Each structure stands twice: as C-alpha cells, then as structure tokens.
Amino acid sequence: MEYAWLAPVLCAGAFFFNVIISRQTPWKHRLSALVSIAAILGAFGVFLVVFSDALANLLGTAAAHGAAAAVDDRSRHLLFDDEPWFQVGRYAFQATLVVDWLSVMMLGVVSFLSALIQVYSIGYMRGDNRFWWFFSVMSLFSAAMLGLVLAGNFLLLYVFWELVGLCSFLLIGFWYQERDNAEAAKKAFVTTRIGDVGLFIGLALLFLQTGTFQMNEIFDAIAAGRIEPWVVTTAGILVFLGAVGKSGQFPLHVWLPDAMAGPTPVSALIHSATMVAAGVYLVGRAFPLFAASDVAMGFIATIGTITAIFAATIALTQRDIKKILAYSTISQLGYMIMALGVGAYTAGLFHMFTHAFFKALLFLCAGSVIHSMEPVLHGTGKSPNDVFWMGGLRRRMPVTFWTFVIASVSLAGIFPLSGFWSKDAILAGALAEGAWVPFIVGVVTAFLTAFYMFRAIYLTFFGEERWRFAAAVPPHAGLLVVAPTAASVPAAAGAMDVQTRRPGEDVPAHLEPEVRPALEEHAVPGHHAEPHESPWVMALPLVIIAIPAAIAGWIGIPGLFDPFAEAIRFGPAHEEALSPVVASVSVLVALAGIGLATVMYWRPIIRPDAIADSVPGAYRTLYNKYYFDEAYQWLINRVVLALAALAATIDRKVINNGIVDTPAGLTGAAGERLRYLETGRVYQYAFAFIVGIVLIGLIIVLFP
Amino acid sequence: MVPLEHVLVFSAILFSIGLYGVMARRSAVLILIAIELMLNAVAVNLVAFAAYVDPQQFSGMVFAVFVITIAAAELGLGLAIVLRVYRMRTSVNVDDLDMMRW
Amino acid sequence: MGYLSWIIAAPFIAALTIMALPRRWAWSIRLVAAAASGITLVLSLFVFFGYDWRAGGFQFVESYEWIPALGIRLRLGVDGISAPMVLLTGIVIFTGSLISFKIRDRTKEYYALLLVLVSGVFGVFESLDVFFLFFAYEIAVLPMYLLIAVWGSTRKEYAAMKLTVMLVAGSVLVWIGILALYVQTGASQAGISSFDIEALTNPRVQQLFPRTFQLVFFPLLFIGFGVLAAMWPFHTWSPDGHVAAPTAVSMLHAGVLMKLGAYGCIRLAVGVLPEGAQAWAPLFLAFGAVASLYGAFSAMAQRDLKFVIGYSSVSHMGYVIIGICTLSLVGLSGAVFQMFAHGIMTALFFALVGAIYDQAHTREIGIFSGLARTLPWFVGFFAIAGLASLGLPGLAGFIAELLIFLGTFQTYPLVGVLAVVAVAVTATYILRLMARAFFGPFNPRWSGLHDVLPNEWVAAAILVVTLIAAGVYPAPFLSMIDSSSAPIIERVGGVR
Amino acid sequence: MELGAILFYVVASATVVSALGVVVTRSVVYSALLLVLSLMLTGLVYLLLLADFLALVQILIYGGTVSVLLLFALMLTRPEQKPVLTHKGWPLAALGAVVVLVLLIYQAVSTDWARTATAVSAAAGARAGAVASRIGPGELGAALFTTWAVPFEIASLVLLVALMGALVIARASEEPR
C-alpha cells in the first residue's frame, strides 16, 4: 500500500526515458513501446499488490470490528501527508496520495485498460513514423491518470487533472498534419480548460475557508459545518464545472466527439478509463462536498440527466462509427453523473467501472474495423469511419464482430452482462431516491442506447458489402439518410465508372510509408483491398477485454454478491435487493430498442428514410448535433475574437496613438513652433533672462 | 561710516545701469563694458558685506579679488572673440551675429 | 570582493576586454562574452544556493565607501527576493550570450553593450543603497536604446525612442521619489539622512514618513517602476520594444528588465512606504487586472509571433502587479515567483522566435504551417514555453499563478475570478498559435528551415530544465521568497 | 555727518554719473574712458569701506590694464561708417533695469542686516557687532594663501587658460578664407 506512488512514477519515468534516451537510439520505436508497456504492466503489478494489501486489511478489520467500520477507518491510507510539497507563510501545500477502495478500483481499471490498449496500439500504430512519440505520450497519459486517481490533495489532483488535459491534447492532435485534428486537439484542451476555470475557483474558495487543499481536512470541515453553506454550494457547483468540462457533460460536451480525430486507441483510452472518467471520478472523490448541498446535488443531477438523453438522441443519426460511440460515451457519462447527482453514489461509480471495460472494447473494435477499412476505402474520398460504407464485415472479421456484439449487449444492459447490473443499479437508485425524472430519462436512454448500438452493429457487420461500390459514389453525395444499397448506387453515382479511380491518390501523409505498398499491391484494376481480421496484437486485447466487459458487473449483484457496494460507498452501506420490476422494465426496454433496430436496419420493414423524411427538421437537428458547434463557433468568432480585436485596437489606437504618441507629437510640434523664439539676438535673451529674474524676485518679495 | 543699506543701494544702481547697457547696446564691445560695470557692482557688494557683516573673516574681500580676476579674464577672452568676429564679418554689431538662431 | 561584487564586475570586465579586442576576432569576442556570463551564472548559482532562508534578511553583504559626503555607500547584499532574481539574470544572460552567436554586425559593440547592461541589472538586484540602485537602474536601461536602434528590426528607431523616453520618464518619477525619501529622512532627524535600504525599512526611520508623505510619493515610485514593469496603461513601449529588439535583447528585456520594475515596486514602493501601499494598492491592482485580461485578449488578435509574446508579457506582468497589490504574503510570494517563472519562459519564447525569424525572415503566424514535422525540437521547446505560459502544472508558471490567485482570492475575490479567466484566454491564444503555425499540413515553403542549432539547443534546454525544476520542486524558491516577503507584508499589515 | 560719510556720498554719486555716461554716450571711446573713470571711483569706495588693498588692485587693474585693452579693442574694430550704438528698444531695457533696481533696493532695505551679522558672527564663533577694522594686504595675503589657497590657484589657472585662449582666438587665422 505504501508503494502506490510507484504506479504513476513508473509511467512518468517511462515517458522521460523515452523522450530523453529512447529517441536517441536507432531502435527508438521498439524500445519506447517496450519501456512504456513494461511501465504500465509494472503499474498493474503495483495495483495487484495494493489491492491484496487492501483486501487483507479489509478482511482483517472486518473480522475484528464488523463490516461497517471497516471501510471508513482502515482502508483509507494517506501517503506523504506530513511533509509539505512547498510552503508559503502559514500555508502548507502537500502532495498527499490517498489509497482507498475508490482509488484502488481506479488504479486497477486504468492500469489494466492502459496496458491492453498499449499492446493493441503496437498493431494499430505500426508503421507510423512517430510511433515512439505515441508510446511516450501514452505513458505520460497513464502517469497523469494514475496520479489523478491517487491524489489526496485537491491541488495535486488539479495538477494531474491538467496534465491529463495536456496529454489528451497531444494525443488527439497526434496526426497534427491534418488541420482538423489540430483543431480538435485545441478544442479539447480549451473546452476542458473552461471547465477548469470553475474547478480552480471552487477549489480556491474551499482553500480560503479552510486554509488547505487537503481533501480529508476539507471534508472534515464540511462535515463539522465549519464552512458556510453558501460557500459549500458555490464551491460544489464550481468544482462540478471542472467535471462538466472533463467528462464532456452538457454544454461543454462539444470537444468529445471531435476528439475522435486522434488514433483510435487514444479514443479508447480517453473514453473509457482516463480523461472522461476523471470528471466522474472527481464527483465521486469530492462527494462529501456535493452531498452537503442539495442545490449542488440538484444541479449535478440535472446536468447529468440532460446530457444522458441529449447525447443519446444525437447518437441515433450519426454515420461515423467513432462518433456514435463518442455520443454514446457522453450519454453514459451523463448517466453516471445523474446517478451521483441523485445520491446513488455506488451505482454511479459502479457504472463507471463497468462502462470503462465495454466502452474501451467498443472503441478498440471500432479501431479494428477502421484499420481494415482504411486500405479498402482508400482513395475513394470516403471516411473509413463511415458505417454507411461498411456492411457485411461479420464473416471477414469474426473476432471483432463477436467482441463488438458482447460489448454492445453489455452497454445495452441485457441480462446478465455487466452493463445490466450497473444500469439497473442506477435506475433502482434513482427510484429509491424518488427522482422520477431521472428514472424516466434513464429508461428512455436505455431504449435509445440499445437502438443506436444495434444500428451500428447492423450497418457495420450485416447487410451488403457496401465498401465495394464506395468509389462509385461522389464524395459529397448530399445528406444520406439511409445506407446506399447495390440497387441505389447507380442512381447516386450517375455515369461515374467504378473502375476509373486511380489508387494512391490523396494518401494521408502519416500513412504514407505504410499504406503505399498495400495500395500498390491492390492497384490492379478491379481488384480492391478487402477487409480482413486485424493481427493478433490487436485481436488478443479485444478478447481479453471482452471478458471483464461481459462479467465485471458480477461483483455488484445486489443482495447476492456485492463487494463493490461494500467497498465503495458513501455513508452506511445499504443492502438493496434486486428489484425485479425495474430490472425487467429496463431489459424489456433495451430489447425493444434492439428489436426496432433490427426491423429498421437488418430486415428493413420500417424504412429509416421514411421516418427521417416525415420529420426533416428534427432529423437535421439531430444529425447536426443540435447545432452546438455552430453556436460555439459563432460565439468564438463574434464575441471572443471580437473582444480580442477590440482590445488590440484600443491598445494601438487609443493607448498607443492617443496617450503615448500624442504627447510625443505635441512635444515635437511645440518644438517646431518654439524654435522661432531662438532669434539669435543676444539682448533679447538677456531681456528674457531679466524678466525671469524679476519674476523670481517678485515671488520672493510677495510670498516671503 | 554710512549705513550698509546705502552701500547696497549704490551697488544696485551700478548693477542696473550695467544691466541697461547690456540690453540696450548693440556693439559687442559696449556690451562687454556694461558687463564690467555689473561685475564691479557685485564686487562692491562683496566688499561691503565683508566690512559690515563679517569683519573677522573678510571672506567677501577674497571673493572680490576673485571677481576682479574673473572679470579680467572674461574681458580678455571676450575682446579676443570680438576681434575674431570683426575680422570675419567686419562688424561688432551683435544684431548681425544671428547665424545660430532656430 | 565577495560573490556579489564579482557578479557585477565579471560582465563589466568582460565588456572592457571585448572593447580591447580587435574587431576581426569575432569568435574570441563571443567566447569571452559566453565565458564571462557563464562565470556569472555559476556565481549566481552559488549565491542562490548559498542563501540561508532560515536566517533570512540580507546576506552576502559587502560595503564600500562611495560618496561619503552624501551618505552614499556601495552596499551589496541579497535577500530572498533578490536572490532568485540574481539567478534569473544569470541564466538569461548566459543563454542570451549563447543565442547571440549569430550576430555578425558589430559583434564587438553588441556584446560590450549587452554585458554592461547586465552589470547594471545585477547592480539593481544586489544593491542595498537606493542611490546606487538608481544608478545601476539607469545603466541597465540606457544601453537598451542603442541595442534596439542599431541591431533591431521592424520600426526599430521608433520603438527604441519610445522605450527610452517612457522608461526615462518613469525613472524621473522614481528619482523624485528617491530624493524625497532622502530629504525626508534628513529633514526630520539630523544625521540619519540616508539612501540605505535597510535603514529606510527600519521601524524607527519608518516613523519619519507621515501618512500624507506616503500618499504623495508612493504612486511616484510605483508608477515610475511600474513603467518598466509594463504596468497598464504604461505598457505600450513593451510590445513594440520586444518586437524591434534583437533576440538576446528581447530575452533580457522581457526576461529580466521588466522584473527590475516589479522589483523596484516591491523593494522601494511597497517596502518603504507601507501606508501609501495600503491606500494605493486597490487602484494598481485594478491596473494589473485590466492588464492581465486585456493583454491576453490583445495577444489573441496579433498576427506577429513576437507581438503575441509581447502582449502575453503584458498580461503576465499584470499578474505580478496583481500579486504585489494584494499585499498578502501568498500573493506577494507568488508575484516574485512569477517574476522568475515569466523571466525564464519569456526568454525561451524569444530565443525560439529569434531562431525561426533569422531563417524565415518573417514572424507572421498565418503563413507558417506544419512546422512540427521538420522542426521537432523547435516546436517541442516552444510548446513547453507556451504550456508554462498558460499555467500548466509541472512548470514554474503554474505555482506562481496559483499563489497569485490564492492571494487575490483572499483579498479581492472578484479580481481573482477575472485573473483566472485571463488564464483561460491565455490558453486559447497559445493553443491557437501552436495549432496554426506548428500543426496542420506541412508547407513546403519552409522545407529549407533547419531545426535549432547546437548553441540554441543548449540555451533552450537550460531554460526548459529550469522551468520544469522550478515547477516540480518549488519549495526552495518559495521558502526563500517567503522569508523576505514576510517582513514586507508585516510592515504593510497585509494578509499573512 | 562725519567726513567719511560725506566722502562716500560724493564719490558714489560721481561713480553713478560716470557709469550712466558709459551706457548712454554715443562715442565708444568715451564710453570706455568713462568706464575706467567709474571703476577707479569704485576703487575709492573700497578705500572708504576699509579695503585698502582691494582699492589698490582695482585702480591698478582697471586704470592700467583694462583701459589699455579696451582702447586697443576699439581701435582694431573700427567700423566703416558711424554705427548706431543703441537699440530702438532701449526704453524697454531701461524699464527692465529700473524694475530690477527697485527689487534690489527693496531687498537691500527690507533685510535686517544686523540680525544677519549676529548670525554670521555666531556661526564664526566671534563676538557679534565687532567693530570693523582696516584689513591690511598682509592679512589678506595670508588668507589667500592659506584658507583660500586652492581656489586661488584655480583662479590663476583660469587666468592662464584665458590668456592662452584669448591668444588662440584672436590670432589671425592661417587657413585661407
């Protein structure tokens, strides 16, 4: 337990080793991957040690004092809480680490998923000429996230919080040569930074009241009522703003779908265990703060509820497979936040726990699909992420298909996969707290979730092999509401010949060395690359993650076997039996969603385009994500940049030309005039001199 | 002895006359002459103070000696300049010497 | 002679040596300058690490007669506020000398002026006598005119003239204030008339400054020094000056010279006239707050790389002014630390901009694109400077801004909110700049650019290591600063 | 009224009259001669103010050297036609001179000299209101070469430099015009 600090330090060490040493070596790519993966595996080992310690501790204490006392007293360990990091005046700033069940759980999830995702990246990133840099930043990212979950001091948490943001900036913008990616990276950093302004101010408020950033001292102060209620409420809402930014909650969610610009393993990491989880983790970690204020809790619940349904509706219409998953993530994060907001603490964090696995799996599967679609669709001007150009991949990529299905079913919340247990816990929690609106929204969201996930499955893995005629359709064929079919393509394509495409055009620069030979190989007219299963370094992690994605939820079966609720709870553990009504309602609703997707996208009994045509406005609004990006763009262009231009203009025109240059000009002009006083007549000078003396004399005489 | 004030008034009159000369005259030589008058008035003042205010120290007289010295030096230099100017411009009229205005 | 006088003397002797060398020996001149500034850096490291913050007060004190009739002594010494500044100056001049290797035009005069200027800077930070402080201050300011007007670019005469006139105008105010202090101490009690800083802060002497006196002369000193610290609205010399100056001069100027102003504000204005500080602080705090937001927004609208950094300096020095004017221990310590951190990061910025400008002959952000591909070191270093500028934890700027904000929240919470917002704006423009110029598709027009040269690499690496070291382990700095800010705050009666 | 006082008023009036003559006469030669006269009369005033040595110096320097110097200068700078020696603006100059005169007289009369004398004596550690005594050349010389030695030497240096300067300036220029 005392060695928990090793986990982030190992990964940070890997980063510095790679940046300083590995990159100088001729085998920098291999070495850096090796070092990074070794470090994260080491971190996982640290987790195992810490976990067994904690378990032994818990069991020992439970045997001695009974279960209720166990968690609160003995399983929380503070490291480095006596020696300050630095000190100013009477304030000490510690770099305390906290090891309790929450951080242990996060430690496990983060290191496990990071490790597998890094292994997967070996395959996914192969051939990239900045391979080494990718692994270095992944290490830094893991280090920051591990530090974040271990931080027992809000300042330290904020430090790692920002480092996580930095790493996401670097990773999202990894393929920076495309303008959009660079913009997306910038957007992610700036948007989360806006939330961080709130977080910082909130933390500063707490600091002013207590004189410390130590979490336990602040929570003690809150519990003892030493902080004024309005401060608790204000600080609670402000701190939550940080989580809103990081976890992509409404209305700061806009960066998250764009963050798909990064390589897919990055998306998997960001969207499962690290970046976005940080926000939920913060709400969980600082729960005593929020719980002390009903207003703050209401605010959190409201934001979570809005986000859950709002993002789910957007996901219905997206075509980019990663965007579907991204909005799904936002929606699920809203779910968690909603749960925390209504007070279902355990349920919210439990859902974060299960979600991390199946969402990581979904992204990795999506990455696998994209990886195989990339050479296929290359040169057609079609995005390899577009589900409308996939189809029929089931047989070509069986491992990916089955793992994707497992993850989707789990996400949809079908018994007995892990998503079922956590989602059910949230719904039951909401019901138990009497929060009807969140409950209903939760049920509706469950329906939508099941629907859009199976829509993605059907479009990707079933149906016609639409990638075969992707080249035939012009790149911007207007708003496609429904995936094209072999029958509809000739109409869309017009006279365009499928075979006229010349392979090798517009190769993205970062793929150049890798893709070029593959293209040359398939450049024979009429013979395109075909999708194929990914190499084992990618497939194996899929299979490994599929296991926890399916069964991780079993540690939280209410009333039967529930160590999770025992370990991670706020206040007394409450035993809640599985509510058959809630469970059956949620499963039925999810099945209904799946059924609807089936009749719309697999066996087209209901035509999607008919629905879209009947409500075109609604469809466009959803497809354009409620026009949030446009609104923010307007805000930036018309307000922020206008303010900037205003400030710059004022500075040049008013302050510089007005206040500074004007006196200078006046001085010059005065000199121009006054120099004619210099007549060259000595007696005039003498006279002026006398006048001056007389004046001085008069002053002396008159005002002695 | 006369009161100190009377001596001071005398020197003030001398000084003002010199001042008038400096301002009213056009010839450089005459201006120098007027300056001599002013310096002389100052020396009178110094001597008077030495006699009336500070009889033990007579610093005023020492200063008067210096004033006379400086006056002589000034006059010598001034006249040398006048000579030089005259050779260049065949005039000692200060109104003609306005090359260095604006 | 002790460490401190050698720190002042070494650059000066080097300047004289360089003047004696023949013009053709350009490399000898460069090496002499680099060696002298390297010695200075080592000496300043000795001073920094030799300072015992537990004991506090002025240390390494040396004292020589200078003009005894006026009570002027050449007294040198550093306390916890000036020791980091001495270190900062040592680092910046060493890196600046390295960066300047590429100066080909009048190398000899350039280095001589640069080194004389640095002697002046050290003189200000080390002197315990107000007269000598002012003397050194002028030595530090005036060579700037020549350095910019001769070796500069982009409207250099205008910028040099504006800079000089504004700074000299500021120093006139300062001089009036200093004379007032001198006369006031002399007028009230015979024999005490003194320029000695230690004496001026002595509680017995402090009684000699009545409230009205303080109210009148505090703004003179604060504004006078504030001009050099680019305090809004007296800042306009700074973006123009930074843009026009040659690289190393920009580094010194933004990195060190602006800190002289802030240092003067702390040492003389706030340190000697506490009642004036109490009365005037809110106004100057407002100036600082305006500067921080307004500078950030102005930077966002700029198209020239150097202008962006110039305005960001205005913004960051706004934080320093805010920190000083909170009159709280945390805020003041943060301000001093920010002076150090900003000095390093802005020196790094200018060093890098110089490296790119000398090759591309343009600093227009919009026409660069995708530089990260061919100039990885350049972009990496620049990114670190940018991240320090936007207050990323782990780099020195974060700790400094954190403390300033905490101090502000303690005293003026609303201003604190504005300042935090300004940081978000800073993040926006820094990232916009990087996304525009360094990312995006590679523009083949810039394929001829080479990455940072070895000497530039060494300089940048020193600065980066300093930024990281001070950001990860700020304790030595803060203990030191704290030990000397505390007496000042005690005199002012600020928030401890 | 004692004899000394009467003598003072007479000599002073003569000095003022001749000084007036210096600044109003239309002949430069007269002006120079009147200056010499007025300066020598001032020498008499010195005598009355108990400054024997100074009176001697005054008469020697002005009566001897300065008059010769001035006459030579006038001879060497004779203009072609008869010049107008006074500006048209002379009334203004007169006004200025009169105002200065009034100010000076006001100051001279209004100041309490007795108190000044006391203060000076006190500062010098001497008895106030000491009777003025005649200062001989010996005492003055002693003072000049002890207390005032450095200024005296500097003054001599000034004279030397002025002499050389005058030589250099007045020498006919060798370079062609």
Question: Could you explain the architecture of this structure?
Answer:
Chain A is mainly α. Chain A contains 28 helices and 4 strands. The longest helix of chain A is centred in the C-terminal third of the chain and has 47 residues, at 628-674. Chain A is globular and about 110 Å long. With 496 residues, chain C is mainly alpha-helical. Chain C contains 19 helices and 2 strands. In chain C, strand 1 (59-67) and strand 2 (72-78) form a beta hairpin. Chain C is globular. The mean pLDDT of chain C is 86. Chain D has helices spanning 3-24, 28-48, 52-76, 90-110, 113-124, 137-145, 149-170. Chain D contains 7 helices and no strands. Chain D has 177 residues and is mainly α. Chains in contact: A-B, A-C, A-D, B-D. The interface between B and D is large, with 71 and 90 residues.
Primary descriptors:
heterotetramer; A: 704 residues; mainly alpha; two-stranded antiparallel ribbon; 28 helices; 4 strands; 69% helix; 2% strand; globular; C: 496 residues; 2 strands; 74% helix; 3% strand
Structural class of chain C: mainly alpha
Dominant shape of chain B: elongated
The averaged pLDDT of chain B comes out at 85
Distance between the termini of chain C: 37 Å
CATH topological fold name of chain B: Helix Hairpins
CATH architecture heading of chain B: Orthogonal Bundle
Query: Which regions of chain C are unreliable across 5 or more consecutive residues at pLDDT < 50?
Result: none
Please render the helix and strand layout as text.
The complex is a heterotetramer of chains A (about 700), B (about 100), C (about 500) and D (about 180).
Chain B: H1 4-24, H2 28-52, H3 59-89
Helix pairs in contact in B: 1-2, 2-3
Chain C: H1 3-20, H2 26-50, E1 59-67, E2 72-78, H3 82-99, H4 107-126, H5 130-151, H6 156-188, H7 197-200, H8 203-206, H9 211-228, H10 237-244, H11 247-272, H12 274-301, H13 305-325, H14 329-360, H15 376-389, H16 396-411, H17 413-437, H18 454-472, H19 475-492
Antiparallel strand pairs in C: 1-2
Chain D: H1 3-24, H2 28-48, H3 52-76, H4 90-110, H5 113-124, H6 137-145, H7 149-170
Helix pairs in contact in D: 1-2, 2-3
